[in-house]
Amino acid sequence: MTEPVDTVRWGLIGAGDVAEHKGGPALYHVPHSRLVAVMSRRPERARSFAERHGADRFYTDVDDLLADEAVNAVYIATPPHVHCELTERAAAAGKHVLCEKPMAMTVAECRRMIEACKAAGVQLMIAYYRRFFPAYVRIKALLDDGAIGTPLQVRAHVASPYQPRPDGERRWLVQPGVAGGGFLTDVATHRLDLMTYYMGRPTHVAAFTDTLRYDFDVDDADVVILRFDGGGQGSGLFSWSTGVEVNEFEICGTAGRILGRDIGQGRFEVTAGGATETFHLPPPSITHQPLVEHFVSCLRAGQPNRLPGEEGMQATRITEAAYRSSRDAVVVRL
Question: 299-328 as b/e, with b when 16 or more CB fall inside 10 Å?
Fold first, then answer.
């Protein structure tokens, strides 16, 4: 339980692509939620973002934003290397925290973030927004209702050809000291999070994390094998290096399976009892809006959110173990 708030008044830290197109608009499209301030180290970017998105003011120093008494929650939309530091500073300032994924660079940093927010009596939520998409919500309900029996195996296959932007805006994605890794920490963590959402916490990880095509210092092709605490199994095939787009997600159970060949657009089918039912539940136009709606409702009620740090760090536990497994040629037991 935390002290309820009437209106969530956001301070946004970071004004890049994710804030521009995904997280930022959600902050002011949700009832009882306002974008009060934005911070970027680049003055023109901060000013322009504030004007376009209707923020009351902008800052170029994070301490100034955290000192703003009108702000009672922050959305951290920066690269991962500063997630831990910014969360600790926001918590110390008494602000609730919505932090972008991946949660942090290491599991140790994740634990620091959790402890800082607990000590300050503020909520921490991690922005794995796909858990709140209509298709994945329906899949969760189907699993809970026993539509395919007991889930035993989960599989994700995601390929997205690497396409650097001409302006270099997201070049940090291939800088290990900033991103923490490559495709595995960037895109794959969304699917790893969904695997833990449906199958439970990971207990064993084996992986190959390789750079097969590009000349940079992070992985562009990954294979991950998982075992979960309920005994279920998982596998992931993730790649920047292939020339085709793939977005598949599958769960097999004792009585059927759920298969999404175009899960990014919310299309999937359920096969059980000799029949197949198809679903098309498109994602929201503003990707973060259902996520922000949930967090705002929790803050207004003083109730815990469904994706706190303890949940959000599960994907980081997997990626950290996967890099170790690949480096040392071992199965890592968590």
Answer: bbeeeebebbbebbbbbbbbbbbbbebbee
Give residue 217's domain range: 130-287+316-333
CB atoms within 10 A of CB 277: 11
Please indicate, yes or no, whether residues 162 and 206 belong to a single structural domain of this protein: yes
Q: Say if residue 271 is exposed, middle or buried (CB neighbours under 10 Å; 0-12, 13-18, 19+).
A: middle
Closest by Cα among 281, 276, 251, 241 to 263: 281
Sheet with 57-59, strands from edge to edge, namely: 57-59, 33-39, 8-13, 73-76, 96-99, 124-126
Rg over alpha carbons for the chain, rounded to the nearest Å, is 20
pLDDT digits (tens, 9 = 90+) for 24-40: 999 999 999 999 999 99
DSSP annotation string for 4-17: --SSEEEEEE--SH
Task: Say if 310 falls within a structural domain.
Answer: no
Q: Tens digits of per-residue pLDDT, 11-20? A: 999 999 999 9
| Three-state secondary-structure class, residue 156 | strand
333 bridge partner residues:
204
221 falls within a domain? yes
Burial zone of 105 (CB within 10 Å; 0-12 exposed, 13-18 middle, 19+ buried): buried
Q: In the beta sheet, which residues pair with residue 124? A: 97
> Is residue 198 in a domain?
yes
Q: Report the distance separating Cα 48 and Cα 40, nearest Å.
A: 10
pTM of the model: 0.96
Helices assigned H by DSSP within 4-145: 17-18, 24-29, 43-53, 62-66, 83-92, 107-120, 134-144
Nearest to 174 by CA among 113, 245, 241: 241
